[in-house]
Amino acid sequence: MNIRGFLETSFLDWDGKVSSVVFVPGCNFACPFCSNWLLVHEADSLPEVSLEKIDNFLRQRQDFIDGVVITGGEPTIHPDLIDLVKHFKAMGLLVKLDTNGTNPAVLSKLLAPDSKLIDYIAMDIKAPLNEKYALAAGTKVDLAKIRESIQLIMSSGVDYEFRTTVIPNILGQTEIEEIAKTIAGAKKYALQQFVPNHSLVKAMQALDPHPKETLLSFVEIAKKHVPATIARGV
Ligand code: SF4
Questions:
Q1: Is the beta carbon of 39 within 6 A of some atom in ligand 1?
Q2: CB-ligand 1 contact for 204 (6 Å cutoff)
Q3: What is the mean pLDDT of the chain?
Q4: Could you read off the pLDDT of 154-177 as tens digits, one per residue?
Q5: Which bin fits 73, alpha (ψ -120 to 50), beta or left (φ > 0)?
Q6: What residue ranges in 24-119 does DSSP mark as E strands?
Q7: How many angstroms separate the alpha carbon of residue 32 from the centre of ligand 1?
Q8: Which residues pair with 6 in a beta bridge?
């Protein structure tokens, strides 16, 4: 597996868990607000991290690390993702997957009731499932696949969350409510504050995030449909 980043210890990437984070390169989206764009567009400039090095760390800290977060980029574009997940599960670790939801075929294998491969999945929902999605993702998006991934995750029995980075020039109250209606009854929905500093598109770096009070008011709106809605980064 091509791994281009490893964070040994994180208290932020999996709520309630101490995790190590594995970063895999490349993505089939080009979100203008992407802060991981180096990993997405210039991964070859980053040193490769060997699985052996990761394993050594995890073995040494197995009494402290609960699990591994596999993130990107978009992990599901890698054919050997399932092998990587199996590798960490065989070490007795919990596994969380971050995804943009574009590959329901891969998700269905990982979430199959008899596979027990994934312990937690976090899927981004970039925008309401209409023409705004392409704006937020920076590319054409097959919305049927996004819908299929949402349904798969909600019916899987695996613990999960959906999350939206609230980009101020694309997402407001109406859009957040529309997304919340699409995932009504979900186990958890996180509204993440937009951080302009490291955005892929320079123009995004000049955008002010929604004020904290506005974001918190969106949380209240979303709660009408997903009671377990939270704010992150405010
Ligand atoms: S889905 Fe968007 S934000 Fe996430 S890694 Fe890909 S381009 Fe970046």
A1: no
A2: no
A3: 95
A4: 999 999 999 999 999 999 999 999
A5: left
A6: 67-71, 94-99
A7: 9
A8: 22
Query: What are the DSSP calls for 154-189, one per residue?
Result: HTS-SEEEEEEEE-TTT--HHHHHHHHHHTTT-S-E
pLDDT of 22 > 80? The answer is: yes
* Nearest in space to 85 (alpha carbons), one of 58, 108, 119, 114: 119
Instruction: State the pTM of this model.
Output: 0.96
Measured by CA distance, the residue closest to atom 5 of ligand 1 is 73
Which DSSP letter does residue 43 get?
A: G
The CATH code of the domain at 5-173 is: 3.20.20.70
| Cα gap 14→197, rounded to integer Å | 23
Ligand 1 atom with the shortest distance to the CA of 72: 5
Rounded CA gap, 171 and 168, in Å?
A: 6
